[in-house]
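Hi V.,

You were right to ask for the full record rather than a summary. Here it is.
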Amino acid sequence: MCARRSWLTPIEPRCTIGGIRGSKAEAIGDLTPQLLVTEAESSGLSVIKASIAGVLLVMISLSAGALPAHHCRTFPLSNRLLLEITMTVTQTPLWTALITPMQADGCVDFAALTRLLHEQAAAGNGITLLGSTGEGANLSLAERQAIIEHAARLQLNVPLMVGVGGLDLASQLEWLAFCETQPVSAYLLVTPIYAKPGAQGQQRWFKALLDAVSKPCMLYNIPSRSGVALAEAAIAALIGHPNFWAVKESGGNPLRFAELKSAFPQIAWYSGDDVWFAEHALLGAAGLVSVASNVWPQQVADIVAKGLAGEAIGAVLRETAESLFVAPSPIPTKALMHYQQRIASNVLRLPLCAEDLASLAPLLAADLQWAAA
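Predicted structure:
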C-alpha cells in the first residue's frame, strides 16, 4: 500500500501579500517598479522586468493598496516576493497537463515528479496538476494532497493549476478547501462527468466551486470524457463571477471554438487540443493546455510562442501530438517518457492500463520528427 498523508492544519484568516506580513505588506502600495525589481534581486530571484512590475502596481492601485483576491495568500512564501505576485495566471500562455509518474508498484514516484516539475519550470510552462492527464480521478485524496504539498515545497517560478472534477460536489468542495491552503495559482474545473447535467445543473455546480475559492478558475469543456458539452447558457450565467477567468476548449472543432470565443469575448479561451492549436491560435486563443509538452517541454513552448505571435508554425505539433492519442491518454505519453528514461515506469492506475498501447512505433517516429524539426 502507498503511504497516506494527513490533512493540513487550517489556514490563518489573515491575508498576506506575496508572503510579506506586517508593516512591509501595508507599505507595498508605495513601492515603485524599480524598487520591486531591486528587492527581487536582493532575494536571489531572477530579474523581473520593470514593465511587469508596473503591471503589478496597476493591479495594486486598482484595489486601493491591496492585492486582488487572486493574489491574496494565506501561507508563507519564503523568497517568492515579486515572482509569485508577477507570475500571474493570465500571463501564462502554455500550461502542461502534467502526468503523475508512478513506481512499478503503483505508488506515486515523487523523485520523478520533482524532475518533471523542474523541467517544466525551466521551460517557463505553467503546470496543471491532477487533471485527466495526471490521472487525478484515479488517485486517493491523500495521494492528491501529497502531490500538491510536494509541488508547493519546490517553490517553482511558474504557476500551478489544480484539476477539479468528478461527480460528488461535497468531495470536490473538500478537495478545494485543502487546495486553498496551498500556494496554487488557479483551478481547472471540468464539466461534471457521467451524469450529463443540463445547463442549470452545470451552472449551479460551477457556481458552487467558483464560490468556494479565491483563485482564478478555468472551466474545461471536454465532452469526449465528460459525456456532455459545456452549456452556453451556463457560461452566460457565470460571466461576471470574479473567479471565472477562462475556458479550456477541447471539443475538437475549431469552428465551434470561433463561435464560442465570439459569443463570450469577456473570458480567455485556451486551446485544449494540441492537434488543433495552430487553428485555435489563428482564431485568437489565449494559449494552450498541452499534453505534448510533457514529452517536449521547450519545443512546444517555442511553438506556442510563435503561434500566438502570428507566425507560421507548420504541422509538427499536430502530427506528433496525434501519436499521444493512439491509446487512451496518458498511456502513450507515459510510454514514450519511459522509453526516454525520464520516468522509471509506464505504470498507470486502473482502469488505465499500459498494455492498451499496441505499439511504440508511432511515438518513436514522433520523437524523431521533433529532433529533425
